[in-house]
Write a structure and sequence with these properties.
About 80% of the residues lie in helices and about 0% in strands. The chain is built from seven helices and no strands. The longest helix is centred in the last third of the chain and has 31 residues. It has one domain: Four Helix Bundle (Hemerythrin (Met), subunit A) (Up-down Bundle). The chain is mainly α. Helix 3 packs across helix 6. InterPro entries: HepT-like, HepT-like_sf, Type_VII_TA_RNase. GO terms for molecular function: hydrolase activity; RNA nuclease activity.
Length: about 140
């Protein structure tokens, strides 16, 4: 095992925290309110995308540097994080759909249902915090070794 680059993880964790703060600060009160504003809905989609990408980037960095593993997809990264014990398996399975959501946003594979986006928005900050917590715990264990 090798050491993690603290600058990479610190930068991406800071970005994840920033996304959480903005999602919570500017959260609309309803799906209807989200749908009323193109600016708000676009910003929300972008922030959710950035949060998901930060999660996968941090995970990918850990897998590459500590476990010498590369993954083929965002889903594979989340699955592998569970396999090596960085995140719980049930947490990984529950959150695999976020990778599909990210792909939908980025690649415009279909119509985005803003009611579903709002539902995800209400859960995403806590999910993002949980990922950050698992990463922090893992990095603390690495420091101790």
């Amino acid at each position: 095992m090798t050491a993690l680059d603290p600058d990479i993880t610190k930068e991406r964790l800071a970005k994840l925290e920033e996304v959480v703060e903005k999602l919570e600060r500017e959260r609309p009160s309803s799906a209807k309110e989200l749908a009323k504003s193109d600016l708000l809905s676009d910003a929300t989609l972008y922030r959710l995308q950035v949060g998901i990408e930060a999660i996968v980037d941090i995970g990918g960095h850990i897998l590459a540097e500590v476990f010498h593993q590369r993954t083929e997809s965002y889903k594979d990264t989340i699955r592998e994080l569970a396999r090596v014990g960085i995140i719980p398996a049930d947490f990984a399975e529950q959150n695999l759909p976020m990778t599909d959501f990210r792909n939908l946003v980025v690649h415009h594979y279909g119509t985005i249902d803003l009611a579903k986006v709002y539902d995800y928005l209400t859960e995403a900050p806590d999910i993002f915090r949980q990922f950050a917590g698992y990463y922090h715990a893992f990095m603390e264990k690495q420091k101790a070794q």
